Amino acid sequence: MTNYRYVIVGGGQTAASAVEGIRARDAEGSILLLAAEPELPYERPPLSKQLWLTDKPVAEVFPHTAAYYADNKVTLKLGAAATAIDAQRHAVRDAQGGEYGYGKLLLATGGTPRKLPIPGGDLPGLCYFRTLADYRMLRAASGAGKTAVVVGGGFIGSEIAAALVSQGVQVTMIFQDGWLGARVFPQPLGEALTAHYRGKGVRMLTGDAPAKIEARGAGFTLSTRSMTTPSGAALDADLVVVGIGIAPNLDLGRAAGLEAGDGIVVNEYLQTSNPDIYAAGDVAYFPEAGLGPRRIEHWDCAATHGTHAGGNMAGAGAKFEAMPMFFSDLFEFGYEAAGEVDSRLDTVADWQEEFKTGVIYYLRDNKLRGAMLCNVWGKVDEARALIRQGVGAAQVKGAIAFA
Predict the structure, then answer these.
(1) What is the pLDDT of residues 169-205, one digit of tens each?
(2) Which of 148, 143, 150, 145 is nearest to 167 (CA)?
(3) Cα distance between residue 40 and residue 74, in whole Å
(4) Which of 144, 195, 197, 268 qualifies as a FRET site for 3, CA 20 to 30 Å off?
(5) What pairing do the DSSP bridges indicate for beta strands 31-35 and 2-9?
(6) Which residues of 340-378 are buried (b: 16+ CB within 10 A; e: fewer)?
(7) Which of 297, 302, 253, 250 has the alpha carbon at shortest distance from 18?
(8) What is the DSSP string of 57-116?
(9) In 114-186, which ranges are continuous DSSP H helix?
(10) Strand duo 82-86 + 91-94: pairing
């Protein structure tokens, strides 16, 4: 068994940032990065955004090159999923039979796409969009004249639909909610964006879900539950892309005896119930300062969590007090947001141009909990400050100047 001072399990932004956090405090301690994917750690947001809509090269999704890891004395073991943690022995095993000792361990295991529990939900060729390999496959299969059904109206579904349209693909979206982004957008904005997608040529089947998927030559036939298509016929498509959320990868932590619920439970230092094991990013259920415990599946949380956990593994002993933000681009509509952005909360909309430019404030018990900045840029820190202050409904309108 080879021993390391630090072992990082995961291959995303959290893992890459954790290396930075460790090296900021400890220039020499040995590091092993153990990742299930064969790629260097990479950022996921460009896979459904910039790689489709700009000239951004694929190489830019990697925060660091192989040379960076070599220069920083990081041992990379890629394409080797961790399979077990022996917390008593301070050891990790991988699928290839390797065993590695650790002083401190970080679980940055992310999540796995949720699958459609229907006949044909596991057909080869269905794209449960998540990885760089998924992007490469989908991009190669896309092009003018192709057809696609996108299942899901959340972050991934709405971004991928816009990306495919940019490549000339004829897109149909199907999702159970009444409007796009129903979990985050208030109904008036969500309905306006749904109409905007229709205006871009996207066929929107709301309030519906797939019932069965069958192979059709090189493509697929998808039947809906309520058969809401105008002809009542099933949908034929060259591509089916599914984005209905992820399930955090908890099995490794649970089997090691770590406390877990919706995610692996960590304290304000990002330590699990075992003080030598940390968790960060999509998999971590953490006590967000001022907002209470939750799990956040966004890039900024992964990046800040990773840096912070790495620093604490190396002895920083600092509480995590950041408020992660998130962002999206849906055709011409882009936004940045911070705090608790949930359409079930009370909302106050402050529009300069309705459904295009403005700020939506989200309140619970008359206190500001979150803010969405719609085509308003450079104001996230102002939003964070207002959320931390817990300002009331009467004070929010006009609190962020953007005109």
Answers:
(1) 999 999 999 999 999 999 999 999 999 999 999 999 9
(2) 143
(3) 12
(4) 268
(5) parallel
(6) bbebebebbbbeeeebeebbbbbbeeeebbbbbbbbbee
(7) 302
(8) -GGGG-SS-HHHHHHTTEEEEES--EEEEETTTTEEEETTS-EEEEEEEEE---EEEPPP
(9) 132-141, 155-166
(10) antiparallel
3-state secondary structure of 278: strand
**Among 103, 79, 73, residue whose Cα is nearest residue 7:** 103
All domains of the chain in start order, with CATH: 2-112+246-313 (3.50.50.60), 127-242 (3.50.50.60), 332-396 (3.30.390.30)
Residue written as token pair 């141009």 = 353
- Please give the C-alpha separations between residue 237 and each of 192, 219, 241, 373, 401, in angstroms, as whole numbers: 26, 6, 10, 35, 45
- Reported as a single tens digit per residue, the pLDDT across 301-341 is 999 999 999 999 999 999 999 999 999 999 999 999 999 99
Distances in Å between the Cα of 250 and the Cα atoms of 107, 108, 393 are 9, 10, 38
Report the predicted TM-score, pTM, of the whole model to 2 decimal places. Answer: 0.95
- Phi then psi for 8, rounded to 5 degrees? -115, 125
Closest CA to 285 of 299, 265, 308, 312: 265
